[in-house]
Structures are given as C-alpha cells and as structure tokens.
Amino acid sequence: MTRLVFPEGFVWGAATAAYQIEGGVDARGRSIWDTFAHTPGKIDGGDTGDVAADHYHRYGADIALMRDLGLSAYRFSVAWPRVQPTGRGPANAAGLDFYERIVDELLGQGIAPMLTLYHWDLPQELEDVGGWAERDTAARFAEYAGLVAARLGDRVPGWTTLNEPWCSAFLGYASGVHAPGRTEPAAALRAAHHLMLAHGLGTLALRDALPASAEVSIVLNLAAVSPASPAAEDAARRIDGLANRIFLDPLFGAGYPADVLQDTAALTDWGFVHAGDESIIATPIDLLGVNYYSPTVVDLGEGEVDGPWPGCADIRTVTPAGPTTSMGWPIDARGLGEILARLRDDYPPIPIMITENGAAFDDVVADDAVRDSDRVAYLHQHLAVAHESLRKGVDLRGYFVWSLLDNFEWAYGYAKRFGIVHVDYASQRRLWKDSAYWYRDVIKANGINGMA
Ligand code: IFM
Questions:
Q1: Cα separation of 248 and 325, whole Å?
Q2: For 82, which of 11, 95, 215, 390 could close a Cys bridge (C-beta 3.0–4.6 Å)?
C-alpha cells in the first residue's frame, strides 16, 4: 500500500464555532442566532444554542481531548456579543477573559490557536439597525476586531476575519434559512459587500494591533460549480460569480466582476460600493482559508422561492446520482481539487489552508463506540485529494476537520452530527468516534494510505 505523506510542518487541526458549541449564554449579549433559534419554526426540533456542547464550562476537558488527538492547531470563533454585548462600545472584560483562558490552555498544550472573529453571531442590536445590509456594521466589526487583537494579539498566531461570508449574506438575507432570516435579495448583495468591507477594515485594524508575525486570513466556502447539461453553462457562470468570484476577485484586487454586476442589475445599481472600498477589501492577507464539503451542480429550471442566489430564480441546484451525506450533500472530493487548482491558476499566489472539511452521518452509539466508517472514508478521500493538490503545486499548509465535536448545526439543530467526537447532549459526555481514532493516527503518521 502506498503512503501519502504530507510535508513536514503540515498543520493538522479541528474546527468549531462559538454559537455551535459554547452555550454559556447568560454570560454574554444576544446575537441574531439567539433570536432566530428562539423563533418557533426556524430550527428543526426547536433546538437552540443555549447549552450546545457546554464548551463554555468544559473547555479544559475539550482541550485535553485535542491534545490527545495530537492536533497542532485549533480553529475556534469568538462570539462578538461576549466581547461587545450590544456590538459597540468598550470591551466586556469577562468575555475576553474567557477567550484568554482558552488561548492560554491551548498554548500550554502545544496547540496553536487559530481565532475567527465572526462565525455568524452578529449582536442583535446591530441587526436591529439594519445588520449587514448597513454600511456602519463594517465599521463596528473593525472596532470589535481591534478590541480582541488588543487583548490576545500577543499570543494568537492566526487570525481570521470572517467565516463564509456567502452564508452570512445569502442564507441570512436572501433565503432566510439562517439568521437574521430575511428574504431580501437586494439587501443580500448589500450585505455581501459590507461583509467584504468589514473584512478589509478588520484586516487593517488587526494589522495595527498585531505583531508582524501574526497571520491574517479570511475563510471562504468556495464552490466547484458545474452545469448539469450544456444548456446550463451560462447558469453555472452566474452561480460561480455569486459563489466564488464576488468574494475572490475583490479580495485579490480585481474589484467586483463585471458579469456579476450586470447579472444583478435588476436588483441594485451597486451604489453601496463607495470609492476606495475595493482597495480596502484588497488589503493584503497572509493566508486563505477554504471550506469544502460537496460540489454544486446547476440546471435551468424553476429555482426555490426565496433561494439563496439573488437574481437566479431560473436556476436550480441538482443532486447528481451517487452517495450523499445525511445532509443530502453529494460526496465528491474532486470538487476540492478543482477549487485548489483554480486558486493556484487564476489568483495571485497565497498560502492556503483547508479550514473545514467533514461530513454528517447518522451515527449510532453501540457498545460504547461509534463505528463511523462512512466518515472515515469521506475524510480519507478528501485528504487524498489534498495530497494530490500538494503534488500539483498548490501551496497547501494545513487541514482542519469539521468538526471536533458534534454541535448545533444551524437550521438543522442537533439532528445532524459532524463531529469526530460524539456528544451525548443529555450528559454532555464526549465519546471518540472511530474517525477520531483514525484522525489521531493520521496526524501521528503525518500521512494516509493511498486510495485503493
Ligand atoms: O456547521 C457549519 C459551519 O458552521 C460552517 N461551515 C459548514 C458547516 C457544516 O454545515
């Protein structure tokens, strides 16, 4: 059996996000996800993140678990309303204390903290005055970034401004399946721009406060888009514009793509993009995070009512034949390779990390074990593609599994389990799934077996 060995120093990590695992809601301000989750009918089973995996109280044991896995890095997010309960004003010291404890504990265990400032939990007071559809929210984000950096900048080597602005803008403001639950396609495009502006302003604020050695990044959920038939080629171009190029082009200095502006002209004149915004968005970063789960296949046809793609009511996404995860997402690791190759070929050189990759399956606990061979196979396939991409010249520096723990999967609540460690929500007991043992061995060997 061939061995696929990763380069020395390759970062092996796991990722989580504040609202999905922390709980501890009484110690912070309210976010849009508190409001959304407590609105009847929005989340499967009426679940909320009030307790989640109770990481707020159990972070010490969870970090010991990370150490036992052998992680070299841990990607987590800071809940903005813990730091600024209303989204503006001075820092709440107790909120920053909590993240300082996490960071110090990680460093003590030899695990590099990789901190994300925004993984979707906007303070509710900011949404009350318009949320991401309003320009001022970008300025508020930069202020918040500066506060976190002032406290933790001396110890945290990796800083991410935003996680998946596509989801914040288009699931939050167009399809409304995520908080704040708005179905206003024009506002979704405004939100996309203000998120990117927040990224740029946030990067500038971080640069002011951080030592030169700190690395700043953004994490995008890029899509490998393909047409279901030749007739859908233009549809694929339009979806590619809204999934990928609307973020990547301004990030790398090319400004918003002309075809995206044209495709969405019936919704907005893009007057919310002010002179100078695009150069702020293009402020250089050190690293690009890529989250990948499944490919996107599109066809012409009636799209969803209130779909996530502004101006694309004539396009639908289709699920190709083949295996899917319990989310109904097709399993096809080739999309990851396509995205990495495209970044290598079409954009300026930049180090890349796969900052999320993983799968939900219907795990069963039996005899104190979770035999999740489906998840192991999924991770194995994607790591093989990551290795192949390295061989083909992609500057890939690390891989983070999503997720360390089972957690609150947004609109699906606790019904979907992405963790390599099982969480029994009644007892909060953690149980390593087979995938956790497998990942521990991968990390130890710094490699995987070649695919059969
Ligand atoms: O759980 C989410 C995460 O918060 C962001 N990326 C996708 C994951 C799976 O849906």
A1: 28
A2: 95
